[in-house]
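User: I'm putting together notes for a lab meeting next week and I want to include a structural view of one of the chains we've been expressing. I don't have a solved structure, so I'd like a prediction I can at least talk through. The sequence is below, exactly as it appears in our construct file.
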Amino acid sequence: MSDLFVGLDISTTASTAIVINAEGEVIARASGEHTLSTPRPLWSEQDPREWWTASCLALREVLDHADVDADAVRAVGLTGQMHGSVFLDHAGDVLRPCILWNDQRTAAECREITDRVGASRVIETTGNPVLTGFTAGKILWVERNEPDVYQRIASVLLPKDYVRYRLSGVRAGDVSDCSGTSLFDVARRRWSDVMIEAVGVKRSWLPEVFESSEVCAEVSQEASGVTGLRPGTPIVAGAGDQAAQAVGTGIIDEGVVSCTLGTSGVVFAASDEYRVEPEGRLHAFCHAVPGKWHLMGVMLSAGGSLRWYRDVVADSEVAAATRQQVDPYDALMEQAALAPAGCEGLLFLPYLTGERTPHADPDARGAFVGLTVRHQRAHLVRSVVEGISCGLRDSLELMRGLGIATRVVRASGGGAESSFWRQMLANVFGTEIATVSSADGAAFGAALLATVGAGAHDSVEAAASSCVRVVDSIAPQSDRAVYDAVYQRYCELYPALRGTWEK
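Assistant: Thanks for the context. Below is the predicted structure for the 503-residue chain, given as C-alpha cells.
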C-alpha cells in the first residue's frame, strides 16, 4: 500500500479523522461527536477528556474503514478549534472543563490585562487586542474565581495540543494556534515575555512552539493501543483550524482569500509580511506556512444565526422539509430566493452571541430592523443570509484597507454548499467566489501538513499546489449594485444601536 497520512480535527462539535495519500485523495473519514456545556449565559465549556474519547473512536474507525495497515501511516497532523484553555495538573489530569473560544466571561480580565500593558503595545506585540475568547484572560479569570484550580496548574494547552499530549505525552504547540492566546509575539513567532509577565503566567506552563509542518512528537505505546496507530508514528505540530483550513483550500499566496461559513464565519487572507490592523479589528496570526502570516476576521454567529432561525422561527418549513425528506437548509434557501435582493428594506444584524470583527463587543445583540406588514418569511430568511454576508464583507473591507488584494474568494463550510449563498457572496463581496475539491477543510489541511513533515512534499506550498483543485467558480451579477447600498445601511446599524446594548 502507498504511503498514507492522517489528519485529525478537534472541532467544537466532533473529532474528525481522515486518511489521505500523497496525491491528496481522501481514502476514508470518520467522526466522534462532542457535547457542549453552557453553565451560565454566554459561558461555553467542554470536557477535554471527551475530545480524547471521540478522537480514539474516529481514529480506530477511519483506519478500520479504510482497511489501512498502521505501518502505512507515515505521519499524523492535528488541527482544531482555537483559543480553548485546557488546564492540567502535574500528573497531566484535567483540572476543570475547557473554556472555549466563544466564551464571553472574561471581559473584565481582558480590560485589566490591556491596562497593564497598554492597548497599542498589546496590538503591536500580539497582533490583536486581548479578547474574551483568548487564553490570557481565562488564566486570570481562573486565578480570581477558582483559586484552588489555579494553585494546581502545571500546564495550559490548546484543544488540539491536549489531544497531542494524550497521543504522545509531549506538550507542544504551533505558531498559528499559539498566536490566538494573547501571550504570543506574532511578529517574532515566539512566546512574549511582556505578555507573560503582565498576566502572571509561569513560563513552564506553556508548551514548546513549532512551525506547523515540523515533527514534534510521536505516537506512544499507550496511545497506540487505543487508537490503532503504530507506536512511533510521527506527529507534526499542525495548526489552528483556520490556518489548517487555509492550507486545505490553498490559501497560501496574497490575493487568494477564503471565506468559511460554519457556525462562525471566517474571512482569511495570507500575507507575505507581518501586517497589523491599527485598531486591532482584524486578527494578525502566524500562518501555517513558515515565514508567512495571515489576517483573519471572525463573525461569531454566521451559520449559527441561520441555525437559530431554523430552530426558532422556521418550524413549519422544517416540518414540511422533513416530511418530504429534504434538507431543511435547502428548503430555507429556496424560500429565501423568493424575496428580492435587499428584502425591501429589511436588515438583520447577526450578533446573536456578541461579535468579534469588526466590533469586538460581547454585548452586541442581533436584530431585525425595518420590519413592515409587507414582509413575509421569505424576506426574513433572506435578510438573515444577507446580514451574515454583509458582516463577512466587514472583514474583507478591512483587509483591502491594509493593501491585501482580493482577486478571488474561496468559500468552504456548510453554508458554501448552497449555490444561492455563493452567488449572494459574489454579489455582496464584488469578487469571484470559488470552491475547491476537498470538503474536509481543516482535517485535510492537517493531513497535508503531515505530508510535508514526512517528506512526501518539499513544502506546504508544494503540498497545496499538488493536492488542492478549484472545481467551481461564480462571478458577481447585477445585484452587486443593490448590495453596495444594502451594505452601507448595514454599517450604520451597529453604532446606532450600541448604546441600547450597553444599557
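A couple of points you could mention at the meeting. The first helix runs from residue 48 to 65. The chain has two domains: 4-249, 303-435+472-502.

User: Perfect, that's what I needed.
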